[in-house]
């Protein structure tokens, strides 16, 4: 009697021990759950990343995605100069001095809640590097109007309407040039720069004025 009870106890404790050894899988983020529920589709990650480390180590840093094409007006080369320095410089000029493209760039912006504090945004141009957890922090994306750019987002059949209701969309256009047709249809904030630099500050101001309220409403855990 007591022997069999002891055996049962031992086997249960050993199975309990094995249970702890299972690899911990990353939870589905709230945003992705919401996306799936509203869309009626299962969220599918493009890559199995339960074993990968977060690409952006800081859980409180909001993430902004910019186009990866070097021909884009805004790239990893010039995004810091533009959003933080409030002045537009073509990527090719910066590329001459710094040919190697960084994997990520940090852009600081003064916190509205605490003016003595600066929020550090992480800007990337390759969404495929992001893990499940990272997607919890993606607050904005600059789009060119090409649909393939959204195909890297980890949703099954990412539709622009749903993407831009969850992530703040922006398009930067050169004055006098006609943007791609999609830009007129998609729910994105259109920003414009000219050949002269005097309008840059207003354009950057419009960017932050659009992003911060969106971030407050959608990403309260990042609004610091």
TrEMBL record:
The keyword Nucleus applies. Its main location: nucleus. Keywords: Nucleus, Transcription. Residues 15-24 have a biased composition (Basic residues). GO terms for molecular function: RNA polymerase II complex binding. GO terms for biological process: positive regulation of transcription elongation by RNA polymerase II; transcription elongation by RNA polymerase II. Residues 59-211 form the Cell division control protein 73 C-terminal domain. Signal peptide: none annotated. It is found in: Nucleus. GO terms for cellular component: Cdc73/Paf1 complex. Residues 1-27 are annotated as: Disordered. Belongs to the CDC73 family. This is Cell division control protein 73 C-terminal domain-containing protein. The lineage of its organism: Eukaryota, Sar, Rhizaria, Cercozoa, Chlorarachniophyceae.
């Amino acid at each position: 009697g007591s022997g069999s009870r002891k055996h049962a106890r031992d086997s249960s404790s050993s199975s309990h021990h094995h249970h702890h050894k299972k690899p911990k899988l990353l939870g589905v983020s709230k945003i992705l759950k919401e996306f799936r529920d509203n869309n009626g589709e299962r969220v599918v990650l493009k890559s199995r990343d339960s074993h990968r480390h977060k690409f952006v180590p800081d859980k409180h840093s909001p993430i902004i995605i910019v186009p990866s094409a070097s021909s884009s007006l805004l790239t990893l080369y010039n995004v810091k100069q533009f959003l933080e320095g409030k002045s537009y410089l073509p990527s090719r000029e910066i590329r001459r001095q710094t040919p190697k493209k960084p994997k990520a760039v940090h852009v600081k912006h003064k916190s509205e809640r605490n003016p003595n504090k600066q929020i550090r945004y992480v800007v990337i141009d390759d969404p495929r590097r992001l893990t499940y957890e990272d997607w919890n922090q993606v607050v904005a994306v600059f789009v060119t109007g090409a649909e393939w750019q959204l195909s890297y987002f980890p949703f099954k059949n990412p539709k622009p309407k749903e993407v831009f209701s969850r992530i703040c969309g922006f398009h930067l256009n050169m004055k006098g040039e006609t943007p791609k047709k999609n830009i007129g249809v998609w729910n994105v904030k259109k920003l414009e720069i000219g050949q002269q630099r005097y309008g840059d500050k207003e354009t950057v101001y419009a960017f932050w004025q659009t992003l911060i309220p969106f971030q407050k409403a959608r990403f309260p855990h990042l609004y610091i």
